[in-house]
Amino acid sequence: MKIDINVDMGESFGRYVLGDDEALMPYVTSANIATCFHAGDPLVLERTIKWAKKYGVAIGAHIGLPDRQGFGRRQMDISVEELRSDMLYQLGAMDAFLKLQGLKMQHVKPHGILYRMVGEQEKYIDTFLNTIEEYNKDLYIMLHTGCEALKRAEKRGLKTAPEVLIDLGYDENGNWMLERVKKARSPEEVADRAVKVAKEGKIDTIDGKLIDVNGCTVCIHGDSPNATMVATAVRESLENSGVTVTNLNGYFGQT
User: Fold this and answer.
1) Which residues have a Cβ under 8 Å from the Cβ of 105 and sit 6 or more positions away?
2) Domain ranges of the chain
3) Torsion 13-15-17-23 (CA) sign
4) Contact 46/21 with Cβ under 8 angstroms?
5) Are strands 217-221 and 160-165 parallel, antiparallel or unpaired?
6) Is 65 helix (H, G, I), strand (E, B) or coil?
7) What pLDDT is attached to residue 48?
8) Which has the closest alpha carbon to 145: 112, 110, 119?
9) What are the helix (H) ranges across 121-211?
């Protein structure tokens, strides 16, 4: 039994601090680092990459919409041409910092409402996949398990990393509930969900039912008020339950 723990981070801006990214690093295996569109700035991006290197955490680009005030969680009617160019801009920026650290990007994960747009909305799915395939087809595509974009990516032979968002609510149809502002959740509750995902492939819904999920990675949001406590509990509970915690390359047996 293996699982990856991914966390959204690098979302501070200037003197405004959001989340304790370095404190999270020892407990996670993949970092989704903001690429300065929905949050973050170049100094924060470089600093977070250096922390990930220090703690041996794999790095992914957390691409978003150009909407800092709305934290990338408000729908924007961008064109497919804008989506492509915005993605390339963000991926290229991160790769510049990674190059100087002697690191490679592991995955791409959309942020906020962009996650739903490229994962589910017909207008954007193929442009999203085309851009990743054109830029670097070795990148894992991290999206919600079972979404349309992942299904098409698998058919194309692209690398996919289906995730389960263990600190968000799910409805009975397996849809996760977007929160404009992250709320604190019980660390024990989130940890129990992580273990159930890893060992049983199930998660509880907002109405108390259990549904099937198939994910290789579980997500914790770094902007929640008690993210470090949650990450600590999740890591300890998984390891105490006999689950190996590893990044995506380790999960899929890649070096």
Assistant:
1) 59, 60, 61, 91, 94, 95, 98, 136, 139
2) 2-251
3) positive
4) no
5) parallel
6) coil
7) 98
8) 119
9) 122-136, 148-156, 187-200
The model's pLDDT over 88-106, given as tens digits with 9 standing for 90+, comes to 999 999 999 999 999 999 9
Query: Within 13 Å and on the Cβ side, how many CA atoms surround 95?
Result: 12
| Long-range CB contacts for residues 71-74, cutoff 8 Å, separation at least 24 | 71/11, 71/38, 71/39, 71/112, 71/180, 72/37, 72/38, 72/39, 72/111, 72/112, 72/113, 72/114, 73/38, 73/112, 73/113, 73/178, 73/180, 74/113
User: What type of residue is 127?
Assistant: T
What is the signed CA dihedral for 96, 6, 247, 170, rounded to 10 degrees? Answer: -140
The answer to whether 183 and 154 are in contact (CB under 8 A) is no
Q: 4 near 30, Cβ under 8 Å?
A: yes
Residues 6+ apart with CB under 8 A from 160: 140, 141, 143, 150, 153, 154
* pLDDT over 70 at 143, yes or no: yes
Domain 2-251 indexed as CATH 3.20.20.370: yes
What are the phi and psi torsion angles at 218 (to 5°)?
-115, 145
Q: Please list the residues that pair with 6 across neighbouring strands.
A: 30, 219
* Side-chain-facing half-sphere of 244: CA atoms under 13 Å: 9
206 token code pair? 């907002």
pTM: 0.94
For residues 223 and 19, the answer to whether their CB atoms sit within 8 Å is yes
pLDDT band at 255 (very low <50, low <70, confident <90, very high): low
What residue type is assigned to position 82 of the chain?
E
